[in-house]
Write a structure and sequence with these properties.
Elements: H1 14-29, E1 35-36, H2 53-61, H3 64-68, H4 77-88, E2 96-102, H5 104-116, E3 122-126, H6 132-139, E4 143-147, H7 158-171, E5 174-180, H8 193-208, E6 212-218, H9 228-232, E7 245-252, H10 253-256, E8 265-271, H11 274-291, H12 297-308, H13 312-341, E9 353-357, H14 361-368, E10 373-374, E11 376-377, E12 381-385, H15 391-394, H16 397-404
Parallel strand pairs: 1-10, 3-4, 3-5, 5-6, 6-7
Antiparallel strand pairs: 2-8, 7-8, 9-12, 11-12
Helix pairs in contact: 4-12, 5-6, 5-11, 7-8, 13-16
Bound molecules: pyridoxal-5'-phosphate.
The site of pyridoxal-5'-phosphate (PLP) has 13 residues, from helix 5.
Length: 405
């Protein structure tokens, strides 16, 4: 009964499948025996969902009508202002800005792909990437192409990035590029300042050749990547860009506020042209009306309250830093043990996940089930969730992966 373009679509979710297998093992062996390295949320050392007390306190003190009322389609104006300030911290580039509230970071990515890539055109991202980019491309009539994120020495592959951008620009008048940094899912990689310069030089060259270039920076995990201003320093590089090089940043409350299911985020536009920003706000509002109308008012109001409260903000930031440090400690164990046993790991710099390149990730993950370890098999390797694996259970995982391989 579906329309022809929707026929046969079925979400293949490797993460869900791995998590289901893990839950079955938990039923048989008990949670304390099983290592669940599949989940993309922070679990505490007891395996429970980690939340931020200050966020919970503000949310539960809010007026019921504030939680359930409609919000403006583009978002509460104070929310959009707060989102822009929080996104850049002290690293605001010289540019015009605009923002539209979205249903999580996913909604922001949806709007960028829906409005800044032509139907039938390719959108470019890295080969190690979050699978949802492809789902959104297919849903909106675009296709996803990839460049190799790493060269043979596991350094950022500037060369392949440039080759792919140039090849696509031979056949397209415009190009949308998606880069997920810092704390990339699934590798934990972050572009260095030097790598950013090279990426921007490639895109500027295409812009000066007359192509319309859009860059979406997915920062979903930025608050799990390190110190606030050093992780955002690259944003200064978006100053005074050519008018036909448009930068968007997808902001999400899911990880930074442990607000995963409250579905609140924003797409931010950065341009040297006020007209480009006006157009961005108009098309974003239009897409929101079509996709979900308006976004969770309570979550937006919470962020406004928290951002405006000079006493609560440092407390919230300290709670969030504690979660970041907990995840980092677990990842550090994995990376150190991988190093000492000789397991090759993609360079991890921060974030929820670590990636192990493998020839047959599904077979390795199946073999790991014998050890009651559950990780996610991706196309290029295995994703190990440091966010959900306790410090204690992380010990020995690297060596067991090596043995399974
Ligand atoms: C790479 C990446 N980008 C964006 C998101 C957006 O998440 P949400 O829609 O919950 O904000 C996620 C969530 O898993 C992600 O992994």
């Amino acid at each position: 009964m579906t329309a022809t373009h929707a026929a046969g679509r079925k979400l293949k979710d490797a993460i869900f499948d791995a998590n289901q297998a893990c839950n079955e093992a938990i039923k048989i062996h008990g949670a304390d025996k099983v290592t669940n390295a599949t989940i993309g949320v922070v679990l505490d050392e007891e395996g429970k969902l980690a939340t931020l007390p200050t966020v919970e306190k503000i949310f539960s003190s809010m007026d019921f009508s504030e939680l359930v009322a409609y919000a403006p389609i583009s978002g509460l104006p104070a929310y959009l202002d707060a989102v822009i300030d929080l996104t850049f911290a002290d690293n605001k580039p010289t540019a015009h800005f605009g923002a539209v509230a979205t249903a999580g970071g996913t909604g922001a990515i949806h709007h960028a792909i829906a409005n800044y890539a032509e139907r039938g055109d390719a959108v470019l991202t890295s080969d190690w990437c979050w699978g949802t980019y492809n789902v959104i491309c297919v849903e909106t009539g675009k296709r996803l192409e990839t460049f190799k994120l790493f060269d043979d020495a596991l350094n950022f592959n500037t060369n392949d990035f440039a080759v792919k951008v140039d090849a696509l620009c031979k056949n397209q008048n415009s190009l949308l590029v998606i880069i997920n940094t810092p704390a990339h899912n699934p590798t934990g990689y972050a572009l260095s300042s030097d790598e950013w310069d090279k990426v921007l030089a490639v895109l500027k060259a295409q812009a000066s050749a007359g192509k319309n270039i859009s860059l979406l920076v997915d920062i979903a995990y930025i608050d799990f990547a390190g110190e606030k201003n050093s992780t955002r320093a690259f944003m200064k590089k978006f100053s005074d860009l050519p008018e036909n090089l448009f930068v968007m940043i997808s902001f999400s409350m899911s990880k930074s506020y442990t607000f995963y299911g409250q579905r609140t985020g924003a797409l931010i536009g950065v341009s040297s042209s006020a007209d480009v920003i006006d157009e961005f706000k108009n098309v974003g509002k239009y897409s929101s009306r079509a996709a979900w109308s308006n976004v969770n008012r309570g979550a937006q109001a919470l962020l406004v309250k928290l951002a405006a409260d000079k006493n609560l903000t440092p407390i919230y930031e300290a709670e969030r830093t504690k979660l970041y440090e907990m995840v980092k400690r677990r990842a550090d164990v994995f990376v150190a043990e991988a190093d000492s046993c000789g397991l090759r790991v993609v360079p991890y710099k921060g974030g929820f996940f670590i990636a192990v390149p493998a020839d047959n990730p599904a077979a390795v993950c199946r073999k790991l089930h014998d050890e009651l370890i559950f990780a996610v098999p991706l196309k290029l390797g295995i994703r190990v969730a440091a966010c959900s694996t306790s410090f204690e259970k992380m010990h020995g995982v690297a060596e067991k992966i090596l043995r399974a391989m």
